Amino acid sequence: MNVATMTTPASHTRPGATADDVVLSAEDVSVRVRGAQTMLLEPVSLALKAGEPLVVIGETGSGKSLLAQALLGTLPSELVASGSLWLDGEQYPLHTPENRRPLWGRRLAVLPQEPWLALDPLMKVIRQVGEAYRLVAGRSAQASHAAARSDLEQLGVAAASEQLPGKLSGGMAQRVAFAAARAGGAPLLIADEPTKGLDAARVSEIGELLLKSLAETPRAGLMVITHDMALAHQIGGRLMVVRRGQVIEQGATRDVLAAPTHAYTRRLVNAAPQAWPEAAFKPAADSASGDGKAAGETIIRAENLTIARGDTTLLRDVELSVKSGEIIGVQGASGCGKSSLGDALLGLLPPHSGRVVQHAERLEYQKLYQDPVATFPPRRTLGRLLKDLSARHRLDDSQLPQLMEQLSLAPELLSRLPGQVSGGELQRFALLRLMLIKPRFVFADEPTSRLDPLVQQEVIACMVKMVREQGTALVLVSHDAALLRKVADRVLVVEEGRLKACQEI
Amino acid sequence: MVKLLSRLRWQYRTFLHDRRQLAVASVALSLAVVQPSHAQDASAAQASAADTRRLEIVGPFDIKGADPLLSGILFQRMQIVETLVEVDATGELQPGLASDWEVSDDGLEWRFTLRSGVQFHDGSQLDAEVARQVLEIARAKPGLLKSVPVERIVAEDAQTLVIALSEPFAALPAYLADYRQQILAPAAFDETGTAQQVIGTGPYRMLRMTPPLSLEVTAFEDYWGPQPEVRQARYQAVSRAEGRALIAESGDADFTYGLDPASRQRLSQSPRVTLAAAATPRTMLLKVNANHPAFQDPAVRRALSLAIDRTAIAQVVLRYPRGASQLFPPMVEGWHDPALPELHQDVAKARALLDAAGWKVAEDGIRHKDGQRLAISLITFSDRPELPLVATVLERQFHAIGIQTRLDITNFSAIPAGHHDGSLDMALFARNLAMVPDPIGNVLSDYAGTPEASGGDWGAMGWFDADFTAELERMAREGYGPTPARQDPRAQASGVIQRALPVIPIAWYYQNLAISNRLQSAQVDPWERSFGLSELRWAQ
Amino acid sequence: MNQVVEGLAPQRVEAVRRPRLDWPLRRVIGAAMVASLVLLALLGNLVIPGDPLEQHLYRALQGADAVGVSDAGEVITSAPLGYDHLGRSLYHRLVAALGLSLSIAAGAVILAAFSGISLGLLAAGRGGWAERLLSLVADSLLALPGLLLVLMVSVILPSTPLALWLGLSLVLWVEFFRLARATGRSVLASPGVEASRLLGFGAWYRFRHHLWPEMAPVMMTAMAFGMANALMAIAALGFVHVGIPEPTPELGTMMVELLPYWREAPFALLTPVLVTFLLLLGLLLMSGSKARTSTAADTLEGARP
Amino acid sequence: MNLPSRLLQLLMVVLMVGGASYLMMQSLPGDAAWRIAAGRYGYDALDAAAAASVRAELGLEAQGGLHFLYWLGDILRLELGTSLISGESVWVEIRHQLGNSLSLAGAALGISLLIGPPLGLLAGLRAGGWLDRSLLAVCSLLRATPQFLLALVLILLISVEMGLLPAAGHGEPQHFILPAMTLALGLAAVSARLARDAMAAVTQTAFHDFARWKGLSNAQTFWRHGLRHVALPLVTYLGLQFVTLVEGVVVIESIFGWPGIGHALVHAIFSRDVPMVQGTALVLGVGFVLINLLVDLLGRQLDPRGVK
C-alpha cells in the first residue's frame, strides 16, 4: 500500500486552503535520520480545524510521536524533518526547528506526557503556572498570581497550589501541567500521550479537560497523540492511524473506530480489554460456582492476614485461598498495597499478623513483574539465563523449543541480551522461565501495564494458557478493571485497607 | 616560554664547564664584599627622614619562641640582642656589652667591665646586676655554660661583673659570646626564667613577632652605637630550599640564606641577585660507633674513610671546590693543621685493610667475619637537604668495598638518642665546630668525656683517649700555650682525631646567600652570628 | 526529552543509534597510556638492563649515553634518558619508580576495593545497625584529609611502603564502600534480585549476574580514579619528605630531588614529571566521566522500552 | 544527613583522631623527649642535657601509664594541652594558624567559584560543543597535575620569569594570589566538570523542556529552572571538597611559606608534636563536619523536598 498516494489528495486540498476554520496545517511532514535516506515517518499532511480535535493513534514505535515532534521542532538533533507548517498564514519550513521556538507557549501549547516529570520538582505549583502568565503572556506579578490561582481553582487543584509537584498525584500533576502549558495563551494544544501511566478513572478526566478547553477557547485547535483507544474514543474529532511511520488510515474518529477498514486498525481497536470477547479466557467448564474445577486443590491460603510496611498497615484481615487452575484478579489504585500482598503471599514480607499457608515446595511459588527488563540479569543472554535455571534445578529443557513456539518466541532471541528484545517478548520470556519450573502459584503484579494493548493481549493469552495447561494458581493484579473482568475467575478489590470481593462479578 | 627553554638548554650544556669555576668564584667574592661606605654621613640624615624601605631577609630557621634557648640565635643574627663579648670575622674576640675584661693570675676570677649608658629596648638600663641575673638564668638551662666550672657570679659595682671559677677556664669570654648568653632585660623573663619577650640592647628592636614564620624589626633610636642606615627589616622563615631560592630569584628578598647547591648555580645567572659565600666553621661528618664490632678496629674506620670520594661529593653534590681533608676547615686557625696528611680516597687500600681485619667478601658481595655480616645503618636527616644526598652517595661507596648500608632518614634527634642508647651505627650530619667562637668548647663536649661516657652526642662514640682528653682539659684551663713538643696543641689534637678517626670528615661548609641588587654591599659573617644588618647600605 | 521520542520502534532505534563502543575513544587512549607505562615498568629492565642505584657522580645531570667502556675499563650501562643529580641512570630509576609506585597504588586500590565492596554490600544487605555503624565510620573518615590519615599511619607503622599501602587503603576504601552500598541498596531491592531468589539462585549467582554488572563500570572508574589519587598522594608525600625513603626510586621523590636542577637539567626533571602526568592522565581518561557528549543517542537509549 | 547523624559523625571523628593520636604517642620510636628537644633547640644545640630538661619539664616519664580513656576525656573537655615544641597552648597556636589557612582557602574557593561553575554551566548548556570539549581537555590536564607541580609552574612563570607576583611570603594582599590560584585551579577543574555535568543533565530533563515549551526563553529557563538544580550538587560537592582543599593547603602552604594550619600540621608530624597533630586534625575534622552541616542546611533550602 502506498501511503503517499493515499495522503496526496488530501494534501492538495488542505494547505493553501485558508478556510477560516483551519487553524494549523502541515504538508508533507516526514522525518528521517540526518544523513540517511531511511524514512522514520513517511510524508503526511494534516490540518487542524478550530474546535475539531485530531487524534493520532498507533503502537509504541509507530512514529506517531515523531509527527508531533516534527511539528513542534523538538526532534533530537540526529533526526531531521522536512515539509512545512502553516500557522496564521505563515509558512514554517520544518527542517529548521528554530523557527518554531517563538511559537511555543504563545501559539502552540504542549501538554507533556508523564507530567510529574515535566514540572520542576523544586518550584511551587502556583509559581510554575504563574511564571507563564508573567513571562510569556506579559502580565503583572499580581495578575499572574491571581490568574494562576483561578486556573488551579477551576481545575480543582487549588489546594495543591502552594505545594511542590512531588506531593501531587498523577492526575493532579497533569492538570497543573495543563494549566501551565495553557497559561502563555496559546490556542493550539498538542498533547503527546497525555494519559500515559494514569489510572483508567483519571484518563477520562483528562479527556474531559481537553475537550472542555477546546470548546471554551475561540479558534482553538487540539491534537492528541495516544495509544489509548478509550481516550481516542472520548476525544472524537478526526483520527489518524500510524503504523511503521506511515499513516494507514484516517477519517472521523467515530467512524474509523466503529468500522476500521485497515486490518491493523481493527486489531488495534480490538486489543483494548473492553473489546476483548467475553469468556475468551475463561475455562471451558462452567465457572459460575467457585468450586467448579473439581480438580482444584488449595495451593495457598492466607488466614486473617495483616500486612504492614514499617509502621503503615496496608491491608488487614485478608482471607484468601487460591486453588490450582484458578485466576484471581486483584484490582486497586496504585499504592494500595497490592504488591505487598504479593510479597506476603510469596514469603518475601513477613506478615504483621495472621499467617500464610503454602501447600507446595518453596520453588513453586513465583512472581511475574511489571517491568520485565528489571527482572533479568542485564549482561547475560536469554539462552544462558534459561540454561542457568535448568542447570540449577536439573530441569528437563527438551520441551523448551515447544514452549517457545507456544509463546511465539523466535529461537534466535535466545542469543540476545534482555535489553535487546522488546518488552512484550521479554515478558513472555519471563513467563517461559516460570513455565520451565512449573510453578503451582504465580503472583502477577501488573504484568502488562507497561505494554501496548496489542502486546498486552498476547501476553495475557500466554499467561492464561499456562494456567490452564499447567494447572497453576494465578493472582493477577491490575488497575484495569475491564481486563480483570475479562480474564479472572474472581475479582477482588482493595478498598480502605481491605480485600473485598468485587460486586460487579 | 621559548626563551626560558632555550636558556635552560644553554645552562644545561655549560653546567659542567661552569661548575668548578663557579664555586671558586663565589668564595673569592665573599672575601671582597665589604666595601667602604661613602654615605656614612648621609646615613644619619636619611635615617631621620621616614625611610620606609624594609629589608627582606629569608632564611630556613623557624621562629619558635622568645626564649634565647629556642630562637635566640635568630635574635642575635637580627641584632636585636647582644652578648657581653663579640667576635670579628677572623674569630678574634671583641668587646661587646663588656668593653673590657681581665683575669686574675690564678685564672679563677674574671672581671668584666660593662659599657656604660647601654639602654634596653624597654628603656631600662644595663648594669652588672642585670647581667648577673640574666647569666644566672642562662646557667640554669641546658647549654654550654653548664659545663663551665662557675662558682659564683657577682655584680661588684654597677659596671663590673665578676665571675669566679672553681678551676681555671681560659675560654670563658668566648663562651659568653654564645647566643644563649644574650643579655635581655629582666622584664623579658617570667618567673620560671623563660623569656616571654625579646627585650635586648641591639641596634634593632622587635616590632612584631609571628611565630613560626616571620618577625619584623625597626631601628632602635637609643642604641648606644651608631645608627644603622637600614631602618626596617623583616625576617621570613621559608623551610624549603627551593622556596627560598625562588624568592631570591623573583627579587622579593634582599638577603636569602641557606641556598642549596643547585639553586646557587641557577641564581648565579640571575640579574637580580649577587651570590656570596663564606667559609664557616661547619663540617659535614660521619659519626661512627666505635663500640660496633667492626668499627672497634681503627683500620676499619680508616677503610671507611678511604672508600669515600670527597672530591666528587664536594663538586657534584655540594658544588664546593673540594672536600674536607681534615676535621677543621682552614678558617679555624690553630685547629686546622695544614701539615696533616690529607684524607683521600683509595678503594684498593680500603679493601686491603678490611681483608686484613678479617672481613672477607662473601658471595653476596658483602663482607663477613665470624658469621657476622657487615651490614650497618646510617642515620641522617633532611633538615639540611644535602645530607640525604651525601648519605646516598656514601651508601654506594661503602657498597663498593663490601659494606651494606641501610639509610635511615629520620628526625635528627635519633642521632643523640642513638648515641645514648648505643643503637647507632653511623650517622651523617653537619656540625658547627665553633658554637662558641673558641672551638675548644665543642671539641671538649664532642670528643672528650670519660671512659664510661666517652665522646659526645655530636662527636665520638665509644672512642676514648685519656691523654687526648687530659690535653683538651689543659687547653680549656690554660689556653693554647706551647707544649713540650713546641707545637700548637690545637693542631696536635687535630692530629689525634685525624689518626683515630672517631668521626670521618666529609666536607667543609660554606655559608651561601643571595643578595639583591637593592643593596650596595653586604657582609657575610662566617661565624653565623649576624646578618650584618647594621652595616648594610641601600644601593641608592 | 525522553517522553517525546518514546515513539520509536526498537528496530528503528537500532538504525538511528551510531555504532558506539562501550569504551569511547578517550578511555581507549587512557588505557593505552596506562598499559604502555605498566609495560615499561614490567619490561623496562629486561630491554635495557641496568641498576637504578648505580652512581657515576661525574656524569651527574648529563644527557643520554651509549653502552661503552669507561677510561677505567669498567663497562658503563647505557642510560637512555641520561643521568640524575647523582649520576644514576634516569631510565632505570624511572622504571623502578614506576614499578614501586604502581604496585603500592595498585595494592592499596585492590585492598580498598575488596574491603570497600564487601563492607558496602554487607551494609546494603544487612541494613540496620551494621549499615549505620559502617556508614558512620566511613563518613567520619571522609571528614579527615587523606594525606593526614596517611601521615598518621606512617607515624604509627615502622615501614614506609607498608604504611603507605595501609594508609592509602584506609583513605580509599570509603569511596568503594559508598558506591557499593548505594548500588547494592538499589540492586538488592530490585525485582531482578528478588526474581532470581525466588527462582532458587544462590547469593553468588545474584552477586555475579545482578550486582556485579551494575557495579563493575562504576567500580572500574573508581579504581582508576583511586589509582590516580594514590599515585598523587605518594608523590605528594615524597614531596614533603615522608614518602618512600632514599635511595629507593619513587616518582614523587624523584621529582623533588630533581626540582632544584630545573634550570640546569630541565629534561631530567621533565622525565618523572611527564611519566607521572601521563600515568595520571591515562588513569583519569580511563576512569571516564559520567557526562557523555552524544545527547541524542542517550536520549534514544533511554527511551527504549 | 540530619542533625543527630552529623553529631554522631562529630563524635566519631573526635574518637578516631583521639585514638590515632594516642596510638601515635604510644608508637613514637625512641623517646619523645628527644624529638621534642630536637624541635625546640635545633641540631646545633641538641644534646642529652636538653633532652633531660624537656623530659623533666613535661613529665614525659609519666606518660607510659597514660590511659586511653583519660586521653579521650581530655579531648571531650576540649583540653588539647600545650604544644610540645613551643609550650604554647594548642588552642592559641591553632587559632592563629587557622585564620591564615581559612583566608587562603576562602580566597581559593572564591577564585575557583568565579572560574569553575560559570565555565561549566556554559559548557553544559552546549554539551558537545567546542567549549565543552576544550574545557574537558583543560580539566583533565589540570586534574592530572599534582598540586605542587602546578605551584611550581605558576611560580616559575608568573613570579620568576615575569616577575609579576611574589613567589612566597605572607602578609600583603599580593601574597594571596599565587597560592590561592594554585589551589583554585584544581578546585575549579573539578567544579567546572561538575557544573557542566549537572547542567547537561538538567537540560535533558523533562521539566527543562517543558519550561521552554511553556514559552520561557532560554535565559529565563536557565535562571528559573536550571540554576537551582545545578547548585544542589555543586553545594554538596563544595562541602565534600573542603577536605581536598585542606589537603591542598598542606602542600601549598609549605611551598609558599604560608603560616597556616597545614604548615603547622606537617611540622607537628615531623617533630612528633602529638598534641598539635591532634589539635589540628580535630579542628580540620570538626570543621569538615560543621561545614557539611551548613551544606545540609543550605541544600535543604535549595531543595525543600527533604531526604532524596
From TrEMBL, chain C:
Main location group: membrane
Protein's membrane topology: Multi-pass membrane protein
CDD domains reported in the protein's UniProt record: TM_PBP2 (cd06261)
Every ABC transmembrane type-1 domain range: 98-287
Keywords, comma-separated and alphabetical: Cell membrane, Membrane, Transmembrane, Transmembrane helix, Transport
Superkingdom, natural source: Bacteria
Sequence intervals crossing the membrane: 28-48, 94-124, 136-156, 162-180, 218-245, 265-285
UniProt keyword annotation of Transport present: yes
Subcellular compartments: Cell membrane
Pfam families assigned to the protein according to its UniProt record, in alphabetical order: BPD_transp_1
Family recorded in the similarity comment: Belongs to the binding-protein-dependent transport system permease family.
The name this protein goes by in its record: ABC transporter permease subunit
Species lineage: Bacteria, Pseudomonadati, Pseudomonadota, Gammaproteobacteria, Oceanospirillales
